Amino acid sequence: MAHQMSPLKLFLSLLLVWFTVRRSTESDLWSIVLATMAASAGLIKVGAAGGRHYGGGDGVGVGVTTNVNDCFETYLQQSRNASNTYATAYRDCHVFDVDKRLLYAEEQQPTREGVTKAVDEMCTAFRDCAERESDLAFFQCNRNNSYKNIYTLMNVYLNSSAAIVELEKKYQEAEKEMLLCFIAADKQYLNSTAKAYVQLSRCLKGG
User: pTM of the prediction?
Assistant: First the structure.
């Protein structure tokens, strides 16, 4: 079973890698980085002569093989897949919320148009009153329009109030569904990354 490296051994390992990188070709760099990551997990021992060996009870090293690279390549690919899936799911949650709100707006469109029409007609009538030259005609016009538009104002008030209640309820439902969508995306991402890490650990240990 692999043991954790002490801070001193980890520092010596990183120092060795830095020294080797100075004298290595670019094609060897990836293997060196992977070896350092494995060393930090206690999977590689650093001998007195600077040789890299897999950690084993007998201290006999077999060197850094392509198997280690394959383990990390698989892990990195799984991590990228998990991240891409998470990003897509997260964006879908936002799109779902926007689509829901647009649907609610469409449902209230007839009510909105009715309120707008009633208010426009009422305002037009009062603007006509303002253009009357005679004071008597001006006040008579405003009196008549005020009495006639009491019904209009009451309907505007009641219809608007009902729409507010309906929209607030639906917006709350949409927000709840969006939050649940986010939680599901988070859960999927965490499960995927945890699974990838477990597989990496088993692979490095030869399991």
Answer: 0.57
